[in-house]
Amino acid sequence: MANFRLLELLLALITFWGLLTTAQLDVTTPKHEKGRCAIRGECGKQGFFGKPLPCLDNGLAQDPSEATRKKLIGICGDKWSEGPTCCDGEQVEALGSNLKAAESFISACPACKENFFNLFCTFTCSPDQSLFVNVTATAESTTKKPIVTELDNLWSDNYGKRFYDSCKDVKFGATGGTAMAFIGGGAKNYTSFLKFLGDKKFLGSPFQINFPRPAGLEIDGMSAADPISRSCNDSDASYRCACVDCPAACPELPELVNQESCH
Hints:
Order of helices and strands: HEEHHHEEHEEHHE
Radius of gyration: 24 Å
Number of helices: 7
């Protein structure tokens, strides 16, 4: 009987520590502050056929290597030429490959391309990543490392709307249809557009990225990302899109005046 009670006690302790460990793992992004990350690097796949998923990392942003910095600037622009980041070389390589796949659909409109690239470059590499990213689910990779399987990615309504508006009318010449059919699943508004971009799917995101609306979620130090966005009829000509891809950029035609004719 004593041995049986001892076994019960041991099982209870094992269960308690298991629950405690699970509770601790649930707090996956405990700190949200400037200069701190939420994810960084790649820690392996969830399955044999999957893509590498990011590592859980709530540490401080770090200066990348010179080679990584050069690649990052080549993909995301000169604004990444200095300062720490929350991405490493493997992530930058993957980022470049993923953005290149989308570029063929959106390159006709510089504003759409800029907003698209800016969102994913910021999400992946911002030194303040933990301010707008909160990891909500993890798993164990095939190499026995913790990997991120789901997160919340908080972006302002302003950026989401301007991002969608800059891309919604872009034509994809190869089909005669719109680029939105490919990059946004035919989305009719910016919330549907962001949802399509973040949903885990084949030939899409390898993990679930949720884009909740920021109202009521800016808690515990979090705040929605809201970098400069570009309009398809932007005042800066380098971002302005052609009339065919942006009705707002079309010149106004002079009003027709009815002229009476003599008979």
